[in-house]
Amino acid sequence: MKYLVTGGAGFIGSHIAEALLKQGHEVFIIDNLSTGKRGNIPDGAVFLEKDFTKFDEIRSDFSGIDGVFHPGALPRVPFSIENPIESFTANVMGTLNVLVASRDAGVKRVVYSASSSAYGNQEQLPLHPDMHANPMNPYALQKYIGELKMRQFAELYGIETVSLRYFNVYGPRMANEGAYVTVISHFARQKKAGEPLTIHGDGEQTRDFTHVFDVVDANMRAMTSSNVGRGEVVNVGAGSQYSVNYIAQMIGGPTITIEERKAEAKHTRADITKTRELLGWEPKIQFSEGLKETLRDLGIVIED
User: Residue 123 CB: number of other CB atoms within 10 A?
Assistant: First the structure.
């Protein structure tokens, strides 16, 4: 089979491309290297250094493609608040371009990397896809719009689509610098530099951290499952939650408190009932072990 991966030089996209190659598929990567790294591109993939926000530039690359994985995006909430036009162009118009190019080329299925940030603050946990979306920031809204477009294209044009709402993905190749760094990478960098760990607010905000290998498994299942393809939205999370303070304690060292971030949910935890039913997917990597391994890759050893 021939698959195309947007953002395939990035964190999640490169792992998806690598998994596809291991299964013996032909893999094509579209990435403009704005956040991705050439070194992340797995051997054997065909790399197309292009920008998916430019429709005429990418439309011909979808010809003959069986399925498209679309993790390509400009992520992170603070970046979207500071750069609403740039992030909207990539996350909304870019997604529309991918869908139109897929439709015109006769691609069978598109698997979209959605975001749990679409939930925003909810009155109860765990979070399940039947809840009303409550996007609290530009990035959350942009990714939610992508879900709606996926469903609309399935209904109007018959292209199979499915949206995977990721919950705080971590693991090898995660960003360790720039606007896209996660709390784990940020703390790791500060630890290695001998700096105190900076905690926003009281540090009791919690997240459902999901290992990238589990995310890749969900993507593989979403592309091939006969139970999805009609614009469904499913959670991809570990079903647990850990505080920022917990991560800081695991890494160790002094901490300082800075201003709490605005426009972000206080807590997240995924209900994966629907994911289990439709994809037969279960997370396999426990956060405590995954975190230790990830920090080890970043040069920090956590004692048991």
Answer: 5
Query: Mind listing the domains of the chain with CATH numbers?
Result: 2-169+210-236 (3.40.50.720), 170-207+240-268+285-297 (3.90.25.10)
Which entry of 119, 139, 170, 180 is annotated as an active-site residue? 139
pTM summary value: 0.96
Task: Report the amino acid identity of residue 142.
Answer: Q
Residue 147 DSSP SS3: helix
Nearest to 257 by CA among 267, 269, 244: 244
Partners of 127 in the β-ladder:
270
Q: What is the dihedral of CA 216, 219, 220, 222, to 10 degrees?
A: 160
For the question of residue 139 being annotated catalytic, the response is: yes
Answer yes or no: are the C-beta atoms of 208 and 237 closer than 8 Å.
yes
**E-state strands within the chain:** 2-6, 26-30, 46-48, 67-70, 109-115, 160-166, 169-170, 197-200, 206-207, 210-211, 230-236, 242-243, 255-258
pLDDT, tens digit only, all 304 positions of the chain: 999 999 999 999 999 999 999 999 999 999 999 999 999 999 999 999 999 999 999 999 999 999 999 999 999 899 999 999 999 999 999 999 999 999 999 999 999 999 999 999 999 999 999 999 999 999 999 999 999 999 999 999 999 999 999 999 999 999 876 555 689 988 999 999 999 999 999 999 999 999 999 999 999 999 999 999 999 999 999 999 999 999 999 899 999 999 988 889 999 999 999 999 999 999 999 999 999 999 988 888 876 6
Helices (H), 69-182: 77-82, 84-88, 94-105, 138-157
Pairing assessment for the beta strands 169-170 and 210-211 based on DSSP bridges: parallel
